[in-house]
Amino acid sequence: MSDSTCRPEIRRSAPRVRILRLAVAGLALLLAIEPAAAASFANGMMAARTAQSQRMIVAFQSWAARWGVPNASISVMKGTNLLGTAGVGSYTAGAIEPVASESKAITAMCITQLVEDKKLTYATTLKTVLADYFKKHKPADPTVKTITVAQLLTHSSGITYDPSQGNQGGLIEQLPHNQTDLGQQAQITFSQPLGTAPGTSYDYNNMNYALLGFIIETVTGKAYENYCNTNVLKPVGVTDAKLDPNWRILASFGGWKISAQDYTRFLEYFLPKLNLVSIPVKNWPKFDLGGGAYYSLGTLMRASSQSKGNNFWHDGSFSWNDGTTNASFGAYFGVLAQDVRYMVEVGPTVSDDAFGDLDSSLYNAAYNITNARGPAQKQKRLLPH
Q: Please, what is the Cα angle at 122 between 120 and 125, to 5 degrees?
């Protein structure tokens, strides 16, 4: 099961209320300007937004043609405004598609909601949050009890055994694919000793996020999918996302189906100006990957060289072929410091090089520049298949 990635209180006002508040603020600004000037100002703002999104869409279409991508979609947003969408082949930006490891950012925001609700802290250890579980299931390595929520979020837990990957035994692959079974995934993960001491090194591992999904279920008493839909996705207007019925086993590390358009709505959580997360970005859990890049809440990030703030990015890739079932899909998102963000979904998945080219192409189009490196900065591939 190959799945890869590249690259305290949420203010939960209903999406319509938030948009209305923004609209009223904008109206007040326009009323303070002479009528002719107001019209010119509004038209200029819309023209700038349209030009930017059109450049990005053209860049996406050129990228898809350059790499021979048969099915792909893109959604571009800024603030709470949808700027543009496009589709290639059978994909459209409004249709839900599987997004592989882009699911991790959703899981991370669900955990952050629990932190903001004071049901967890990032420093909470597995010994505390899974106390009842460990009474019944003794781990092979007692050190796992010292792993913190933050270390799971940043892939620095010390867990190097990944039973979701065929080259490491693939025991999770043998579980029913249409069931989440996060408790069983935890038991399989804990059957092997840690590879490194918690907090000392980075090792991208799907099981970190499988365990986070199990923590969500343990703390809330609710199914992972239901909690995330109710507490993270619906508050930003996402109402039809779901775990892929055929691949529920991927659950909290790779199982979501969501449209490109809705995923860009979800990415509002990564825009500090919208105040959807009260924990400042500077206080988010991070693990230093070198070269200015960090792994944080289900995403990679680095300080922007174009404007104040941070760029975020992540890709997801999944392929499966057992002679009976053949599945392949992927996705890539970017959040740029100027608040513009995008989500691209592809089927089948594409190579690391293709994702890297997409990253740079959309970055250059967004800023209307040429030959610049995107947020990933073309650094050496950090995350293995």
A: 75
Q: What is the pLDDT of residues 226-256, one digit of tens each?
A: 999 999 999 999 999 999 999 999 999 999 9
User: Crossing angle for the helix pair 35-67 and 15-31, nearest 10 degrees?
Assistant: 130
Instruction: Quick: pLDDT tens for 363-385.
Output: 999 999 998 888 765 444 333 32
- Contact 171/188 with Cβ under 8 angstroms? yes
- Three-class secondary structure assignment of 258-278: ECHHHHHHHHHHHCHHHCCCC
Give, for 156, the enclosing helix (H) or strand (E): none
In a 3-state reduction of DSSP, which class is residue 320? strand
Task: Choose among 288, 357, 318: nearest CA to 98.
Answer: 318
The rounded distance, in Å, linking the Cα atoms of 217 and 219 is 6
Q: How far apart are CA 18 and CA 31, in angstroms?
A: 20
First-last CA distance in the chain = 9
Instruction: Report the distance separating Cα 131 and Cα 24, nearest Å.
Output: 49
The pair of structure tokens assigned to 111 is: 């955990």
**In the chain, what's the furthest Cα-to-Cα distance?**
73
Site of tokens 């070269």: 291
- Kindly state the DSSP code that residue 81 receives in the 8-state scheme: E
pTM equals 0.86
Q: Report whether 76 contacts 342 (CB < 8 A).
A: yes
283-301 burial, b for 16+ CB within 10 Å, e for fewer?
ebbbbebeeebbbbbbbbb
